[in-house]
Automatic annotation (TrEMBL):
Domain Oxo-4-hydroxy-4-carboxy-5-ureidoimidazoline decarboxylase: 47-116
Protein name per its UniProtKB record: OHCU decarboxylase
Keywords: Purine metabolism
A single BP term in Gene Ontology: purine nucleobase metabolic process
Record organism: Streptomyces gancidicus BKS 13-15
Coiled-coil blocks: none
Keyword ATP-binding attributed: no
Amino acid sequence: MAGHRPYPDTASLLAAADEATYDLSAEEIAEALASEPLPSLPEDAYSAAHTALNAAHAAYEAKFGHVFVICLDGVPEHEVLDRVLEDIRSRLANDPHDEQAITRDQLRLLARERLKNALEGARL
């Protein structure tokens, strides 16, 4: 992406980021996931929720060999726990090939969100 700078506008930058994500190899996805934090629970989540989420994360990592990644952009805070648990349980049923495609798409969405936030912060 850096080799194509400058980008004329935000839409062009985000399109280039999307395109770069589609071209990620399995090794590059693994590298990106190695530094990706787990989705966190709201401060007031009850301890059983922490236990359920920890168990789901462990099952996911055991099956797919990497952390669970999900973009929660636009999800109201009071729905985060339910969304994460629902998605991780649903995605545990995927085969590794299908899950790799979903993971790649979630990384793309996270990158877009982070780029937008960085651009908004730079305009301050």
